[in-house]
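User: tokens in, sequence out, please.
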């Protein structure tokens, strides 16, 4: 998961943005992991076997500025 979040932050450097959205099966263990990582389930009426939509808003401390990044552009 750390690798995936690092790739998302790399994309944020290149494109901007402050929102990460993912979809997950409604299974307790992955949902709990994503919640520990700061994701929240979008509250809506889900159909049976439909993927849960989860979002995380990147706060200003997490946003990497291009001048401070060690990522090749």
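Assistant: Sequence out:
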């Amino acid at each position: 998961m750390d690798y995936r979040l690092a790739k998302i932050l790399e994309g944020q450097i290149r494109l901007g943005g402050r929102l990460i959205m993912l979809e997950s099966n409604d299974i307790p263990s992955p949902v709990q992991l994503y919640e520990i990582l700061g994701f929240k389930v979008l509250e809506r009426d889900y159909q049976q076997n439909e993927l849960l939509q989860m979002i995380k808003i990147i706060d200003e401390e997490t946003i990497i500025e291009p001048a401070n990044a060690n990522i090749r552009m």
